[in-house]
Every structure is written in C-alpha cells, then in structure tokens.
Amino acid sequence: MNKQIYHHFRKYANQEFLFDAITDTIFTYQDIFEKAAGMANILFGNTCGRNSKIAIISDNSVEFIAYYFSVVFLGATAIPLNPNYTKEDNSFAIRKIEPNLILLPDKVFESKIDKQLKEEYCFLSTDKLDFKNIRNKELVFDLPDIEWDDLASILFTSGTTGKPKGVGMKYGAILECLSTYGKDLQFTENTRFMQVVPLFHAHGWLYSSIVPALFGSSVILNESFNIRVCAKFWNIVKKYQATVSVVVPSILNALLEMSKRYEEVPKKFLKYFICGSSFLHTNLKQNFENTFDTLIYEFYGSTETIYLAYHQPDQVFKIGTVGKLFPKHVQIKIADSSEICVKTKYLFKGYINDPSPTEQAIDSDGWYHTGDSGKIDEHGYIRLTGRLKNIINKGGYKISPHEIDNCLRKFKDIVDSATIGVPDEMYGEEIYSFVSIRNGNGFNEQEIAKYCKAHLRETICPKRILLIPEIPKNAIGKTDKFKLTQIYQDFQNSKQ
User: Fold this and answer.
1) At what angle do helices 227-240 and 249-258 cross, to 10 degrees?
2) Could you tell me if 433 and 405 are in contact, meaning their C-beta atoms sit under 8 angstroms apart?
3) What average pLDDT does range 12-40 have in this prediction?
4) Among 19, 144, 166, 443, whose Cα sits 20 to 30 Å from the Cα of 364?
C-alpha cells in the first residue's frame, strides 16, 4: 500500500488533495507529500522503520494527515489515540500497545501523561516540530516492501470488560477492501469528501487519507462535528464544492434539526452521504433525504471486519437493510442466537496483546462473532435486528457500560450501579445509568453528573442518572438489563 500511495502522490502532484476548512488553506498532493516525506525522514532519524509502532495524539488537522502518511511510507503501524483520553486512558492504551514513539502536542504531554509514563516511553512534541517548515521532496530511505498481514494501524475500541482493546488492522486488507468499496461507490478524481468525523476514528482517518489517495480524490477537513460545524455545514459544502460526506446517524439528525432555522433549505448540494457505525432509523433516513433532496448510502461493518455490507449506486435499494453483502471474500452466517458471524480475509489481526478477548471474538472455526443480531435474505441483503454484546453504540462510538459503572461506584454513597443504552433517534443509542444509594442518603443527580464529567470522557457521560431502590439481578447474580429497560420505559411514560 505504501508504494501505491507514493505513486499516487506523484501522479496527482498538482491536484488539490486537502481543503483545510479550519484554516481556509489548500494543499495539493505535492504539498502533503513533501510534508509527509519530511515527517517520515524525521521519524526515520528517530530509529522508526517498518513495523515500528507510532502513536499519534492530535485533533483534526492537516498535521495529523501528514503524520499518518509518514507512517505509511515507513511501512510502520499508526496508532491514533483519542485526544480526549484521560491520563488513565492514555496510560492504559500506551502500556497495552508499547509504541516505539508517541507524537503529541505539549498540552497533552503536560496534562494527560503521567510522570512514570514519561520515563518509560519516547515522546516527540509536535509543537516543537515547526510543521509549517517541514518539507522534503524525497525520502531519505527506500520504501520498504510491505506484507499483506503487516499491521497498518491499531485502533482502540471499547470492550465488555470496560477496558479498550487495540484492533490490529492489516495493510493488505485495508488496501483491497477499500479499493473494491470505492469502485462500487464510484469514487473518482472528482470526488471531494466532506470530512467531519474525528480522525482517530476509523472512518475519520480512512476518508481523510487512504481513500482519497487511492482514487485521486480530495478531502475537506473540518473540526470533529460540533455545533459550529453543524451551523456552517452547508456553507462549507458549497464553498469547497463537496460531493460526498461520511457521517454517523447523529450528524444527520443534527443537520436535520438545524434545517428548521434556514430561510431556504439547501437541496442537491451533495451527491450522497455515506453513513454507518450505528443504527440509522428508517424515518430519520427518509426525512433527511426528502428535506435535502439527497441520498444516504448505508454500510455495515466494524473496525474488526472493515466492510461487510453496503448500499451502492448501481444496486437495488431495500429499505430497512444496511446493504448487500460485500462482493468479495466475505461469508456471513446467522447463528441460532440470531448473531451475525463473519469469515473474511479482511478480518483484523486480533486484539493486540489481548489474547483472551481475541479468542472470545473468533471461534475455533474462524468465525468472528459480531455481537449484532440480524437476518440475511436470499439476495444477500442484511437487516439488523438488535445488539447482543454488552456495548452501547452512541453515534458510532462504542461505549462500555462497565467503564461508566466502575466510575459511578466510586462516588460517595452509591452502593451499586448499572448502565444501559436506550433507543435514541439522534445517536442510535443514548446512555442511561441507574444507581442505588447507601442508607437512603440524599440523591443529587446534578452532583453525580458533575462527578462523572470530572472522571469520564464527555462522550461517555450518562445523559441521565436515575435512582432506584436496588439494581435488578437475574438468577446467577448478573444485572438484569431487560428489567432495567422496563424501568426506563416506565420512567419515560411517567414524563408523558
């Protein structure tokens, strides 16, 4: 993949690659290549090479994209870490993966890296690199030969244990899978991606870097989606002439809500949207398409599998499905429990340095258990019916209830807690936590919520914290999520 991308940077040298809407700056393929080459030379000088593991902590920025390509040229492994990770999150992730080098801004190094970690690992300050002046026309090393199974990236995703797991993605799988998908979605040199997803997320870095580079396309880079981006979304699309946007359902819902403020609703501004990562309600899809006179092509997959199914322009659309089974090298079976199980050459390389979760996810016959329940029809279209694994999927973010409950149980007077995901039209699922308290002491939801915000990432803080006499358990002492769902429904009904 490194040689193919290197070739494309040469082939499309004078074309625009990146429209940085954050700074209103345009970068050609040659501009990005020279910055990536300069950065790769710096990393090479820091003894990084093929199979080195390089962690990157950065907000959405042109720097992140250049850093990522520099890792690709080296044939190394990129590990994008969430810039909102707490000190504890960073310590866990870094010690789990043991990177050779960590690129990060000073503010993260100073406030979110503990003292012992600073002594154990090598850090390189991105603030001291003088990125504006990083520029080399050539690499000081020969491009290495990359094997199919070489680790291209390690992305962290939450697990049922409460600790994130590092998903090992393979160079060959990424190249072949994305090449097939991009051809089916008709990506060309004229495709311009409106990028609003965080770059540490799989969809963020794929569609800000690898996908456009494979097809000679370009990307419009924004901050991670927020109220500012939402308010300016269509102005940015129009200014930079975007054709496609990669989103999650919560973004579609926010844009739909914002449309109520427009004097004139923008129509046909984008050729289509690509949407995945969490369940897209049919009514949201239909309302959005009707309001903006555009199309939404859903896909289904995960960091562990890449694409499993998707809709595409030259395909009959079946409402209520997430698309048709990937055309190459993907097998799906529906287990007796209705769980979707997968065999594919694109399957991840395992959870890095986590053999037990890997063995739990992939059975002895090589089937990966997705944790999703669903059906597949005779034409290969997949319909999702639910979620079996104990994970909350909020707007594409996979969230472990255990992580939230472990935090809540440390709060004074809380005896027990349980957290569930409940249906939400904007995010797919929203987070509700239930707590029981000691000796009937006073319950203050605002105080507990403030505690959560101080100890958890903002994206995983509960929307509501509800007091109940005790957490319901089943016969073997496990939390009864079904009863909690009933309690939530009773709470919702009482508000009506």
Assistant:
1) 90
2) yes
3) 97
4) 166
Residue 337 near residue 350 (C-beta atoms within 8 A): no
Q: What is the pTM of this model?
A: 0.82
Closest of 169, 214, 215, 155 to residue 2, by C-alpha:
214
User: Mind listing the domains of the chain with CATH numbers?
Assistant: 2-386 (3.40.50.12780), 400-495 (3.30.300.30)
Token pair recorded at residue 165: 């797991």
Q: How far apart are CA 491 and CA 496, in angstroms?
A: 9
How far is 438 from 1, CA to CA, in rounded Å?
A: 57
Angle between helices 2-11 and 62-74 (to 10 degrees): 120
- Match 């809380």 to its residue by tokens: 414
pLDDT for res 161: 47
pLDDT digit string (tens) for 421-442?
998 888 888 999 999 887 767 7
DSSP secondary structure code for residue 362 in this structure: B
> Would you state the structure tokens that stand for residue 252, as one six-digit string?
């579609």
Give the whole-angstrom CA distance, residue 427 versus residue 407: 23
- Residue 423's beta-bridge partner residues? 429
Token representation of residue 188: 């060309």
Q: Is 135 helix (H, G, I), strand (E, B) or coil?
A: coil
Contact indicator for 280, 299 with CB cutoff of 8 Å: no
Buried b (16+ CB within 10 A) or exposed e, 236-267: bbeebebbbbbbbbbbbbbbbeeeeeeeeebe
Q: In this predicted model, what pLDDT tens digit does every residue of 237-264 receive, in sequence order?
A: 999 999 999 998 888 988 998 998 888 8
Banded pLDDT at 160 (limits 50, 70, 90): very low
